[in-house]
């Protein structure tokens, strides 16, 4: 709910900002970056599960946005246009870092119990530390599960589930038909179902964690 | 008729994007096929579970964008158009220059072509070539004759001018003038030479005398100053000796006083030690 209200709120301000940004107003461009950075970063983060790569791709996305915003003809399509840039930036970054990622095992290590530095990264300090840790662990685990999807399925699942894009917007961002998007989504969720089962994430284990 | 919704319809149903008849059909199908419903419910569970992977907090880093496009005139839309036209014109002029492009509007015709100017000059040359060789020979002869006459006239005038100047020079420096000059030089008598030598000697003698006189006075003054300085030095030396003597005498006086004082003290101490002994012996 919160994830959807932010872009909606952003879109209201975005329309007037886009016009000004297209006229070359640097302040408006800066505001657009501020408004959309968190969303694009989180898309990129879920795509890579790597902070540095996500930052790199996000920054490239916004640099490209500011350079090419003049070419955007319909301000209503800004969201799908921006995600299109992000998708391309992520794909490019992924290609460049494929060999490096294959060597890097740190990113896939799941923190174990008390030695995990994730204790320090915890955000909700009012919660029960154990529960908080389990939340964080579940979150990390889910992100690892997403990484097991194919690139195409991962893109669609993240955009739909976390970014709240409509199927039409996803289709525009990926330059494919709406039916293709829906199909990828279906098979993506189906694949995730199997991945979760393989990792023993069931209704029972999730309810135990929560 | 058998109805089976495909995955696109199922996913649209899952996300609540189906309406009306389509939605009813899918719902009907799921009621009739519990295994399909179960599968869809599992997808709902996946969807719900995915929500637990929340957002990460991040602060947008300051991105600095270059503002080069706004700064330059040729990057604006009109600027580019104007620059393009100007560049095309320049190119056209350059091409025209090298290809000899010629555009001419005469009374009833517009002529566009290459190297027209050169062709017309060639035509004129051809017309000129239509003169007969005899005429040409005549023209050349006439020119040569004229040229010869002109050259001869110039040569004669120069010759006359040279003659005149030579004559003038000869008149100006005649033998008579040279003779008078030589005579003037040789007329100087021995008497005059002797007189000149005498005056030279006298001048020399007076100069030496003056020099000596000046020299002796300078020396005297210097000697006097030297003597005075020496006397002053002796006097000062004398004074300092006296002062030293005086200082030594005062030192000696002081020493004597001190000696006296010390003797007094010693005497007093002797008396002090002697007096109690004498009183003891008296007692």
Could you describe the 3D structure shown?
The complex is a heterodimer of chains A (210) and B (283). Chain A has 210 residues and is mainly alpha-helical. Helix content of chain A is 76%, strand content 0%. Chain A is built from 10 helices and no strands. The longest helix of chain A is centred in the middle third of the chain and has 26 residues, at 78-103. Chain A is globular, with a radius of gyration of 18 Å. Mean pLDDT of chain A is 82; it is low at 107-124. Chain B has 283 residues and is mostly helical. The termini of chain B are far apart. Classes of the chains: A mainly alpha (210), B mainly alpha (283). Chain A binds chain B through residues 3, 24, 26, 29-30, 33-34, 37-38, 41-42, 45-46, 51, 55, 59, 62-63, 66-67, 123, 135, 138-140, 142-143, 146, 157, 160-162, 167, 179, 182-183, 185-187, 189-190, 192-193, 196, 201, 203, 206, 210, and chain B through 7-8, 10-12, 15, 17, 42-43, 45-47, 49-61, 63, 65, 67, 69-70.
Tally of separate helices of chain A? 10
How much of the sequence of chain B is in beta strands?
A: under 5%
Largest interface: A-B, 48 and 30 residues
Elements of chain A, N to C (H/E): HHHHHHHHHH
Which oligomeric state applies?
A: heterodimer
Low-confidence stretches of chain B: none
Number of beta strands of chain A: 0
The helix-and-strand class of chain A reads: mainly alpha
Per DSSP E runs of 2 or more residues, the count of β-strands of chain B stands at 2
Helical percentage of chain B: over 70%
Shape of chain B: flat
